[in-house]
TrEMBL record:
Lineage: Eukaryota, Fungi, Dikarya, Ascomycota, Pezizomycotina
Keyword field contains Signal: yes
Organism, as annotated: Lentithecium fluviatile CBS 122367
Domain of life: Eukaryota
Assigned keywords, A-Z: Signal
Cleaved signal peptide residues: 1-18
Biased composition (Gly residues): 72-86
Region ranges (Disordered): 65-105, 324-353
Biased composition (Low complexity): 87-102, 329-346
Name of this protein: Uncharacterized protein
Amino acid sequence: MKGFVVTAALGLFIGSHALPTPGGGISAQGQSQGVNLAQMLSLLQTSGLSNTDLSTLLQSLGASNSGAGQEAAGGEGVAAGEGAAKGNGTEAAAGEGEAAAGEGEGNEVELAGVFDTPTAVEGGDIKQDIKFTPSTVGAFEFEFQNDVADEVTVTENATPNGVAPEGFEFLEPASYTVALGVSKGEGLTLSKIDYIFDTTAAGLAGKDITTSKVGRLCPETGSFVISEALGEVEFEAEENEVTLNLNKAVTAEAEWGIFIPVAGAAAGEAVAGEGEAAVAEGEAAAAEGEAVAGAEGAVKEGVAAGEQAQKVAEQEAKLAEAEAKLAEGAEGQEGAVAEGEGAAVEGDAEKED
């Protein structure tokens, strides 16, 4: 009887502490546990167990139930931890993407510059475009990138300190002197001289800005120089911008000008080209004429030689004829002499008779 009571009590206790079914709700579970506990206590009281036995039994049951609860809680904690880890991983990836995007945007900075006023530029190889106060036809821009911070000062010269390269003219009567406080323009990671055209400006009417160039003043000669040795010149149609990407060996600290080909020079080059072609054609025609003249001369010489040969032949024929006549005359004279001599002999003979 005692064993049956204990077994029944254990069954009620385990049932009262079973884990709730999903969606069962706390209220229903609490009511069920209360009923089972009451039944268990009633059975234990009639079991005849001593207080020591009851205490030992209840402690064992409590420890068993506590272990089960901890295991269930541990499972829930692991699942929650895994979910949190996944969530944190997603958030971390998103954070890295945002950081990368921010870094990309931060690698190029546009700054507004004012002539004759130093503009602070950062190091860290951050590309920085300093666009200065626009003029009547466009705006000057200096691009800077280096691992060391610097200060850029640009001065607009209303009267350039040199003349334009041969065949070119200033886009506008101005030049731009670039000065760098720290680097002096040497050894920069990137340095560009740009000019952004205002295509609506009246001063650009009739001018082909796609042929524009950037020139550097040569103080020794007092003239600006346009050369591939300075760097690569490119016209960016989308930006209406001419840009000179300076070679590493070229110092950015200098006086720069923006130039376009002189319209007359371009026309003169075209005319010169046409003139050269005409000269070439003339030379060819002259050579052909000389050949024709030579042929005509040869023909004339041939004709003259033929005529001369004919005359010689005629003269030779006449001479032969004269010689023949002379020969005939000589023969006649000999005959007459012979006849005369014969007659004289006959006369002498008659006299003797």
